[in-house]
Amino acid sequence: MDLKDIQELIKFVAKSGATEVDLEIDNVKISIKSPAKKKRGEVDEVTTIIQQAPAQVVAASPVAAPVAKTAAPAADDESNYITIKASMIGTFYRSASPENPPFAGVGDTIKEGDTICIIEAMKLFNEIESEVSGKIVKVLVDDASPIEFDQPLFLVDPS
User: Fold this and answer.
1) What pLDDT score was predicted for residue 69?
2) How confident is the model over 91-136, as pLDDT tens digits?
């Protein structure tokens, strides 16, 4: 089995919707694992492990998954801002659907209790409400990005 055959197999598995495939031909073991399909046009990550000898493992990922991008606030410039942090692990969405405008953007004034984003966790869409009032200065996470618990999402000027 050559590289072209392996790439075709990866594409076939990704299109088929299968989440895990194990294949063994001669001394070559191939294991392909991919997460379940995501909503809103996200790209799935496909991980392939090819093992020829017990001590040698090669990993290939032909499709890159979206990566969360965050900006670390500078202590001097942004020390008077309040940071709104993620209350759970999941996928961050700025709007209810791709066609809708974002709940909150840079320059928007928000009040305590306003919905500012959605975090999808285990196929449930959780509306996140602001616990502070003020003006959004910066959105720290890209739309449809995976986020961690307590990760900074927004910077708010409370004045």
Assistant:
1) 43
2) 999 999 999 999 999 999 999 999 999 999 988 999 999 999 999 9
Instruction: For each of the domains in the chain, give its residue range(s) and CATH number, in order of start.
Output: 3-60 (no CATH), 82-157 (2.40.50.100)
Residues 6+ apart with CB under 8 A from 149: 86, 87, 88, 89
> What pLDDT score was predicted for residue 21?
76
* pTM over 0.90, yes/no: no
CA distances to 94, 106, 116 from 97, in Å: 9, 19, 14
